[in-house]
């Protein structure tokens, strides 16, 4: 049963002393409630299993190539957004990309700029550093030139961040936060 190991602990911490039949009923009721309240990823999403990654689920779409804006709209329609670059999301992406599935070879992620080459921000509004301390940028990136959206692009056998034209159709990665 889901979360059954939490139940006795809850009663122990609350100091409740219940007779065995009542205690058993209360445990079964609590287990049932925990099962219904269990946080689950939406359909087509996979939960990040790394403990330090928090409560995120990801959808890796390599068959349905879209523009950056259309990809973001799809993610938002599902209650999420394009993947925000971080250590955990990057590791999840690399694991899935290594499977080499689908027809899309580059992938939109949740970052863009209004002024190509300057101040890239995530879809959450956080600035993405543009120096070597942020190790996900490909060498020489971002380079501007009218390229306003961020993608993960294969570069020397590794996927790294690159700025690119938002209208190009690519795969995408959605990120969903379990509330």
Automatic annotation (TrEMBL):
Gene3D superfamilies: Mannose-Binding Protein A, subunit A (3.10.100.10). Residues 53-175 form the C-type lectin domain. CDD domains: CLECT. Pfam families: Lectin_C. This is C-type lectin domain-containing protein. It comes from Sinanodonta woodiana.
